Structures are given as structure tokens and as C-alpha cells.
Amino acid sequence: MTQFLIRRIFWAIFLFLVATIITYLIFWVIPSDPAALAAGKSATPADIARVSHFLHLDEPIWKQYLRFVWQLVRHGSLGESFVNRQPVRTIISKDAPVTASLVFGGAVLWLSLSIPVGILSALRPRSIMDRVTMTLVLIGISAHPVWIGLIFSYVFGYKLGLTPIAGYCNFFPGTVGAQCEGPVQWAYHLILPWCTFMILFAALYVRLIRANVMETMNEDYVRTARAKGASQQRVMIQHVLRNSMLPVVTILGMDLGLALGGAIFTEGIFNLPGLGREIVQAYNRADLPLITGIVVFSTIAVIVFNFIVDVTYGFLDPRIRPS
Amino acid sequence: MAVNALEVKDLSTSFRTDDGIVKAVSGVSFELAPGSTLGVVGESGSGKSVTFLTVMGLVDPRQATVSGSVLLQGEEMLGASQARMRQIRGRTIGMIFQDPMTSLNPVKTIGWQLQEAVLIHQDVSKKEARQQAIDILKEVEIPRADQRIDDYPHQFSGGMRQRVMIAMALINNPEILIADEPTTALDVTTQAQILRLMKKLQAEHETAIVMITHDLGVVAELADQVIVMYGGKVVEQAKVDDLFVKPEMPYTWGLLGSLPRLNATGARLDQIPGQPPSLLNPPSGCPFHPRCEFVMNICRTELPGLNASTVGDEHLFRCHLDEEARNRIWTQKKAALVSEDAA
């Protein structure tokens, strides 16, 4: 177990270095002038040079990178935004709950739809229900989130007036200057983004779960259970489900980790102030510290979720449980 | 005479597939006396496994059409309700399968799986079920049974897992044990142990055993009665001694010829040329005729009926060859086998 953890930590450090170095390299390659953007429209060349020096942009890129690593290791700081001088950590800790609300709420919805539908499809392959489901799945997989989001927002928000068209409310009351707050408003504003997420992922997951359940039902041990006289219900719950959920856990962990790094399209459509929208803005303003900060956060999210997957996997499957 | 443990009459099973109807089993009949052993021999795809999956009611009713009669201790099982079939499975008939590596659920302890078999059929406490599980594990000679009961299948070797499978099939003390190639996936020394164990348990529990196999050696070791299946049909059936004294059917001769013999130095194993027949487009006439070295014109058009042999009673076979020809050919074959053994 200790060895497992040590290997994990080294792997995490390695991933962190690779991800941040690539971010810095890309930033260095693309033609941009962050100092000019930060200095404002009416700045003179002398102003820009001063800003450039102040932001350490006149140093070589490797030196900037080392400064970033040093600040992180020494002060636990991700630096400050080029644009508004706010600490990156403050910005991320403001945005991350929004993205997390979207991703986890969406995950609950898409799982509670795709698990029963996937299982029912697997139980009756080629039935009418299965065929209808598979057609819807194909549509769901083919549709782009922007399109789904816009259609939802237009139909349910604008035409029918059932939901807000866009916007976000904090779950916890007490935010200064908030227009709306509290769990009810929070959920009300997130319904459409959640449903957009649900359509996208449920399509993939129905297929995945259907395929896994069908495969598991053909396993020899399922035949053994039937030969023992187990009822269909018992066979499904005790023998098929846990075994067929193993691959789903892996994929779910990866998807959650990735999505936490920013659901760019969905947040954009519904104007949710999360990490996805933040990173797009940061790119537009060439705000390197903020971009790097969000990349670091996503990397950590992926690593953490992979770790959770491994632990869950060991819990579900005794064959790979570390003894 | 006491009522038979199992009596199958004219059983046929066919499956609807995308390519057409597959006649996996056609017109199979046999009887199994209480406490006796029936060997069922045939190549892969001869219908031997499907026959007994049908008896167990384990073929998918949406794909399979079944006709004939299956009498279990006098009770008709074809058309019985699902609820009744579930009572039968695991209680009156236990079944073990070919591959012990994949036949146990990998995420449950073997104790859990044994107890499940008890709790489905008996109204006992979990504690009592666990005790029964430990007892049966001791009976199948698993060392330290009271500790190993909490282990997972992957912590056991193949032979040990097959012992667990046998324990699971026998835990409710069934009248019949159907063993579908129980030793095929095991190495030779383990095979012998498993066969000895089955013999011992059969004597103690007075269980009737159906031994499905392609290994005539296993049949010679265990069986009282043998049926040889080919292309979904019974092509020869006999008491085991009669079958080895005088097999009457060219396919059975082929099976005997293809047995490896220890002292046949350097001689090649005889093989039956060709492939098992397609059950989708079965050959006309005798199913074996495309591979038979003694094929005659009549074989291509007419399925031979089940004739009675002159050797042994209740010895039936399907072949158009006349008595004189069969005697002559078997005498030659036997001489060849014996001279190889002597060499």
C-alpha cells in the first residue's frame, strides 16, 4: 500500500510538471503581447515596457517557469492574474464550486438515467424499447453541447418560460451583491445545464452499460447462478450488476476529472461563472498565471479522480485489492 | 422397478438465429436410473451440452424451441413454470461446468456463493447455511475449509475451484448431478483426483451422475450407461462394457481409434477426417456420412433407425452396414488397435 501511494505521488508530480511545461511552451509559441493587453488601450510603449518588466515578461520563458514553480513550492501560490492582479487561487476557489455543481449534478442525472435504461436495453436486446433507446443514443452522441444547450435555453427558457435562460446562483446564502442565492435558486438555475450534460453523457453511458451488462450476462458464473436456482432478480442484482459496473467506474472517474477542468461549452452557453468560462477569458487576455492555475487545478482533479477510481475498484473487485 | 431419476423421450431443441434454424438436438431419448452414471460422449457441437441445458430449463425460451418429454422422477418438466424450474435447479439437479476458472463469481467469496445455494432452497439461518458450506467443503477435501470459506475464487487453483463447484452443486443433496466436461480444463493429475472424488461422493450421496465428456477414458472409468451423440442425434447407446466390447457405429470406432495409448510407440493417432456437421444445414440421411469411410448410397438419403445390437441388451446404434460387414470391420479395427498396443 505504501509503495502504491509513493508511486502515485511521483506520478502526480510528473504529470504536474508535464502539464505546466506544455502550458508555458504553448504560451511562448503563440503570438501575443500580454503586457500590452494588461497595460490598456491608451498605454505608451514606455508604459508597456514598464508593465512587461513588472510582470517579469521581459525574462526568458524558462526563468518565468522556474519562478512559477518556486512560488508554488515556497509560498503555495499560483501567482496573480496579469489582468486584474487578483490571486489566481482566489479566482479558482470562486469558480471551482460552480463547475463542480454543474459536473456532479449532471453526473447524478446522467447516471440515474443511463443505469436503468442501459440495463433494460441489455435485458431485451432488439426489442422496440432497445431500438428506440439506441436511436436516441445515436442522436445524443452526435449532437454538439452548444446546439443542445441553445435549443434547451430557447425552448424551455425563452419560449416556455419554465426555467432561467442563463445565469448562476450560489448554493450558500450570504454572498455580497448576489442577485439570488440558496439551494432552490441554485438548482433552478442549473436545471438546463444539468440536462445538457445529461444528454451528452447519458448517451455514451447507456451504450457502455448496455454492452457491459450484456457481456456479463454471458459469463459462465451467471449460468452457474441460474443453475443454482437463483431468480432473474437475484442473478441481476447479485451477479451481473457489480461485475458489469467495473468498467463504468473507470470511465466515470476519467470523465468527472476531465469535466472538472472546465465544461467550456456548457458554461459558455448558460453564462455560468465556472472554470471553463474563466479559462476561455484568460486565453483571450493572454493571462498566463490564470491559465496555468486552471491547468494545475484540472491536472489535480484528474489525478485525484483516478486515485478514487483505483480505490473504488479495489473495493469492488477483490482480485486487485492490495493485500 | 423404481421410477427413473430422469427419463428423456424424443427431446428436440432448435434455436432461431439470423442465419436460420439450428437443430441442436433432435429426437434424443435416454433413461437415468437413481444412483447410476450416464456417460454422454460426442465432439463439440454434437448437442450434448444443449441436451442437458434443455433439461435444466436453461436455454433461452425466446430463441429456443423445445419438444419431446423430460420426466424428472416421473414429473414432466417441459412446460413447467419458471418458479417450478427454479426449485428443481440446484435442489433436485445440480450442475457443474467445464471451466472452473470462469464459473465462479470473481467478486464474491466462495462461502457467499455456497451459502447462496443453500439459502435459495432451504429455510435456514445464515449461520446454519455457513455451517453446511463448511461441511461440504470438507467433504470435497478442501484443506482448512473453515478458513478458506472466506477466500475469493482467484485465491484457489483450478482443481480446487472445480471442487468448490462440485460442493456447490451437491450442497442441497440433489438426486442428479450433471457434470458438463468437468475435467476438460484441468491437468491430468487433477482430472484423476476430481473423478475419484466424484465417485466417492456419488457412493455417499447416492446421486445419479450425467457425465458429459468427449473423453472415452472418463466414460470407461465412471459410467454405467453410455450414449454417443453426433450432429444432435444419439448414434449409439449401450451399457459401458458392451460399448467397449463391440461398438457398432463407424463414428464410435473413430472415437476409440483416436484415444491416445501409452505404449503405441511412434504410431500416429487415428483421426476422424473432416469437421463435425453444420447444424444449420445438416447433411441429408445419416449425419455422419460425409466423414464415414464405409459410406454407401443409402447413407446419403436415409437416416438409419436405432437398431438393436446382438451384443448386450439395450444396445442401440444407427448404421446401414449389415451385421456381417460390421463384424468384419470391427474385428480388423480391433486387431489393429491390439497390435499397436502390443508393439
Rg calc of chain B = 21 Å
In the CATH hierarchy, the architecture of the largest domain in chain B is 3-Layer(aba) Sandwich
Instruction: Please give the domain count of chain B.
Output: 2
What name is given to the CATH topology of the largest domain in chain B?
Rossmann fold
Largest sheet of chain A: none
Query: What is the makeup of the main sheet of chain B?
Result: 8 strands, mixed
Largest interface: A-B, 21 and 29 residues
Q: What is the helical fraction of chain B, as a range of percent?
A: 25-40%
Stretches with pLDDT under 50, minimum 5 residues of chain A: none
Structural class of chain A: mainly alpha
In helices, the fraction of residues of chain A equals: over 70%
Q: Mind telling me the CATH superfamily name of the largest domain in chain A?
A: MetI-like
Rounded to an integer, what's the Rg of chain A over CA atoms? 24 Å
Sequence of secondary-structure elements of chain B:
EEEHEEHEHHHHEHEHEEHHHEEH
> CA-to-CA gap between the ends of chain B?
47 Å
Shape of chain A: globular
- Counting H and I runs of at least 4 residues, what is the number of helices of chain B? 12
CATH class of the largest domain in chain B: Alpha Beta
What does it look like?
The complex is a heterodimer of chains A (323) and B (343). Chain A has 323 residues and is mostly helical. Chain A folds into 2 domains: 14-75, no CATH class; 88-320, MetI-like (MetI-like fold). Chain A is 75% helix and 0% strand. Chain A has 13 helices and no strands. Chain B starts with 5 loop residues before the first strand and ends with a helix. Chain B has helices at 48-55, 82-88, 110-121, 126-139, 145-148, 158-170, 188-205, 216-222, 240-245, 250-257, 297-301, 323-342, and strands at 6-17, 20-32, 37-41, 64-72, 75-76, 93-96, 176-180, 208-213, 225-230, 233-239, 307-308, 316-317. Chain B has 2 domains: 6-227, P-loop containing nucleotide triphosphate hydrolases (Rossmann fold, 3-Layer(aba) Sandwich); 248-342, no CATH class. The longest helix of chain B has 20 residues, at 323-342. In chain B, a hairpin with a 2-residue loop joins β1 and β2 (20-32). The A-B interface holds A 219-221, 223-231, 234, 238-239, 242-243, 316-319 and B 56, 58, 86-91, 94-95, 97, 99, 102-109, 116-117, 120-121, 152, 154, 165, 168-169.
